Task: structure prediction
Amino acid sequence: MLSNLVLPIICKKYNITCVLFSSDFIVLEYSDNIEELTSVDEEIKTNEDVRSYFWEFVGMEEQFEELFIGKEKTLHIPMVFKNKNYFDIDVEICEIEEGQKCYLAMFTKQTKFSANYSDMIQQINHDTLNFENKKEDMETNEHYYNLINEKLISFHVDQDGIITEVNEACSFFFGFVGDEMLGHHFSTFFTSRESNTGFVQGDSKILRAVDTHGTDVFFHADIIPIHDKKTICENIIICQDITYLKRVETELEYAVHHDSLTGLPNRTLLLKRLEELLARTKEEEISFALCFIDLDKFKIINDNLGHHAGDMLLKHVGEELTSVVRECDTIARIGGDEFIILFENLGANDDFLPSTLKRIEQLKDEKPLNYTEDIIIRFGFSLGLSVYPDNGLDIKSLMAHADKKMYEVKKKRDNNIR
Amino acid sequence: MFAYKVVLVGDFGTGKSSLVRRFVDNTFSEDYISSIGVSISRKQLSNDVSDTTMMLWDIEGKTDFKPIFKQYLLGAKAFIIVADLTREKTLESIKEHIQLCQESVPDLPICIALNKADIKSVNYNANELKKLSSNIIKVYTTSAKSGDTVNEMFAALNNVVIERTV
Result:
């Protein structure tokens, strides 16, 4: 039948494989080169359902029906990949005997053309995919750039420091929605320790501003000049929030000036305050006193009860001394078991100093350290006092006098005990 | 056994062939080989109701210079529209693919596969995608590479087709 319909010589020349099947999809006949289409383990047989071998016909029953009734003349499925080759499939109706219609499926192998076409399309798609991925990456970078930009405050100022442009982050920081900042001098919004007259190109500044919550925020401002031909017409100021660095700086400053165990000022801070006081004496008549305190027998406490007990006692003494003095006075721990109290603003006939020293002496009996439920640590100390200007006019002589007095007291007590 | 046709539709390079390979052979390749024309695979499935054969039409993806050939969609019982989560443009094309599918064979179940979920993702709104058509049964985020949600999606689609047909 098939040889009557399609000349075998034409099939061979044009790489066409044919299958003839009935209206109920039963294979009637196929061309000799059918192995081009089917795999070894699926050898095509007559009287079987053509859809078992040609999956492309599954679901196409409606389209076949349209062919059968003459609604369509051909069913075309291009470039079906089978057995490593591409085939164009054309299905038509043919009459094998008078009045008996069946389907003729012709599979045209796209050899050289399909290989070239396939390579070309694959190359184009490959290149396009690479391009699109790169483009997505660029867009992603832009997205991140914008995210950074949302956080980074920047504004433009002219040569006189007048704001000419602000970014969204800048407006948002100050709680503005429009161009309220434009036309104002930058110092209306930012303060600086340095001159507020303007920005020097290529320089940087530390700026300070208050946000909408009333919080002080510090910025490191980079100044980038914009050149207009040969002259500089504006500067872009890019502000990086360095508030956390300021906090670190404050912490470091505290650590430098305070004793880590008791939290009291240390020798460095005490000397700084003394220097400030002595500087004031050149301009005004003031009086102040230094009180040296040295704990008695502290080493014995450390040796008998351990260093923790010693540390707790030092903290305790520091706290008790703090409770006795005024806020304007300074209690410093200057070494192992030594404290110095700086009493400021002493009046000429003031009773403050004697009464305070008396209260400090009372701490010995009244405020022992309840170290544990069972251990109560009693402590004693020796005091030495020097008063400016009576006992010295500089730090060295004032401290030497107080130290001497303290050791005299200590020596006297030790002699009394013996 | 009931056999039916499912067509995977989408832009080129979205991973349609990879999804089919993962589902049919449980394999994956990092190499990108652009599909030309159509490649048909078969997978036997069964659920509580029926044993079925799913014929998977892995068709050439849409490019700027070549639209999807409508003839491939004829006779389908369901569609899977595949987009690449790393390329926004492929997500934007989903609407157009839905329209094409519905014009070719109306009222068929559609699954949306947002593929390549194993790598960086662009922003998307699954609820908005679901609203694109009442025929969408679910929006899946899939990874042909790891296999995540692939079998689940095909199984769900098979159940819907059986429910509507058998």
